[in-house]
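Quick check before the chapter quiz. The format below is the same one you will see on the exam, so make sure you can read both the input and the output lines.
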Amino acid sequence: MKQVHLTYILFLVWIVSSCQNDITIDNIQDIPKVTKEDKSYANVFSILDGHWKGDFLIFEDQNPVPKEQLELQHISLSSIQKRQLKQINSIKVEQVYSSETPYFQKVTITDFYPDSGQKIVSKGVNKIQNGQMWCVVRKPDETVIHSGNTEGDNTIIWERNEKTPQKIEYFKETVSDRFYEIIGWGYYQNDNPSKSPKLWFYAKYEKQ
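Here is the expected output.
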């Protein structure tokens, strides 16, 4: 009987382990099993932990140039200032990050649009899964997934490249003790990806 009982326990452990490995990337509820490939990413998201507030600014490039003329992987606030882009929107943003493990961090994002008075609350996670950094945000109308990597100790780079419909994005998050800055760009719908990105964005949040 003891042998049967032990076999049953081992079977249950195998089932649970298999289920953890089958967690889909868009799952923001369940914490994936940590693998050997994940170990090097321990605490990579901890720089974001806390409560942040600030303005998220959206700009439009009204004079696109061939993409080859820009260094789209090396961007900063001066990238926007030099291009003399037109600001088309401003969103007041509140983000609260909380790491549950060194590999899994929850976030709540509240976007407030002053012009319309609309408030949108989204839930998401930053997580390490299958040896890769992921940011998954569940908005009221869609789930947005970015894959990531790091640049130094204080910058995370996020990207997505979806074809139908077209959604190509690249942005950097750089965190200091008091501030959290975002700079990036995106191509959407009928934008021409051979030209400079039509939409750019910049945000600076202060720790509360």
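If your answer matched, good. Residues 10-20 have pLDDT under 50 and may be disordered.
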